[in-house]
Amino acid sequence: MTEPMELGGRYRLLKRIGGGAMGMVYEAHDAVLDRRVAVKVLRLGHSGEPEDRLVRFRREVKALARIRHPNVVRVYDSGMHDHEPYLVMEFLDGVSLYRLVRRRGALETSTVRVIAAGLCAALAAAHDARVLHRDVKPSNVTITAAGQVVLQDFGIARLADQSVVTQANVRMGTPAFMAPESIRGAAPSPATDLYSLGLCLHLTLTGEPPLGDSDDIGPIIERAVTDGVSPLHDRGLGDAELVRLVDELCRKEPEDRPQSASEVLGRLGPVAPDAGERLTELVREFVRDDVLGHFRSVPRDSVEPQVPEDLDGAMPGPAVPGAWGLAAASSRLGSPEPAVSLSMATLQLVMANMTPGTAASKQREAVNLAMRGELPEAARLLENVISFYRAHLGADHPNTLVSEYWHAVCLARLGARKEALALFSRVSDHAGPGGTEREETDVRG
């Protein structure tokens, strides 16, 4: 498959965001509804047994279609392209639990309760629909900007009323989070998913892999079926009730664990509102750090500004708010909660293919993203546009300044106030109070 391409006459693939045994997952744009989506494309041609893979793919579509719950990724559409099936799902703006814990380490017990409640609600909905996930792990859990915990990737899900589809030498699940009975080849049950849930929560409470940190599958599997997961009760983590529950979920034998996600959810009890707010803030901090890391890694004066003859005057400068207009322009944006995105869309291709025309187009695209609340993606896109304008038009050209202004808006919204203020000040110093508006180049369009 050549990237980017279009599926079904409406889904334009932008960037690969994941992949595995089933195929590749892409960020895409739905041209009909003008929204970002995630598209999973099954690669039958790379498998010796394409029929089995097609059965699995259809099973995932059927599994997701059975489930309607805010804690489970939504499926929008499915189809075929060049004899390869694809599945269209909601695009989740946020961070995986795996990446969050990897960067932050152990989380507060109150925050872990929020995550546990979201995952239990997702599993309860799936199990009520007679769907077993069978690959619950931190990288399959996304926490959105609003603090919503969403379970995804039902690629090896089994419908409880259908026979299992297996292949020789195909491992059903991820060893580090796979239940002992699955390793032994026994039939899965709701308790199988709950074991994996327990290991996810164990990780969030300790910041450490429950079965040890090893790239070798052998020791992990051996530990899972022999010694099992080390209990938490003597770790001094606080919240004894939560620790006891996690230890029960991690027991080796399925009959010794809680038997339903609803039971676990009931034992968790109501979640404290401030705990949910803390989880939301953790996601925003993560995304803000990502954006600032990219911002600080771009050399500000690494390229000597130059204005080639074919560019000089070719792009009239858009309106740049002066010092008097910054507050007014910011107020036009309103103050909605940002829909955080970790996706970089096609940024890897932007600088390589950028021309004066595409730079102006990317500038408008970034402003529209910012106004829709998709701040990290807008900020990253603006970084590339700013670099182009600085190199070809100069640091003080109106196109450069307006891009820096909107970049400052994004940074301010993401909480990077120091960096935003520096950019605002620079724009104000060069634009002054008499910025001239040009309707034909209004970047808000």
UniProtKB/TrEMBL annotation:
Quote the record's binding site residues for ATP.
Answer: K40
> What Gene3D superfamilies does the record point to?
Phosphorylase Kinase, domain 1, Tetratricopeptide repeat domain, Transferase(Phosphotransferase) domain 1
- Catalytic activity of the protein: L-seryl-[protein] + ATP = O-phospho-L-seryl-[protein] + ADP + H(+); L-threonyl-[protein] + ATP = O-phospho-L-threonyl-[protein] + ADP + H(+)
Please list the residue ranges annotated as the Protein kinase domain: 11-272
Keyword terms of this UniProt record: ATP-binding, Kinase, Nucleotide-binding, Serine/threonine-protein kinase, Transferase
Q: What is this protein called?
A: non-specific serine/threonine protein kinase
Provide the organism lineage as a comma list.
Bacteria, Bacillati, Actinomycetota, Actinomycetes, Kitasatosporales
Q: Name one GO molecular function term.
A: ATP binding
**EC identifiers of the protein:** 2.7.11.1
Q: Does the keyword Chaperone apply?
A: no
The keyword Disulfide bond appears for this protein = no
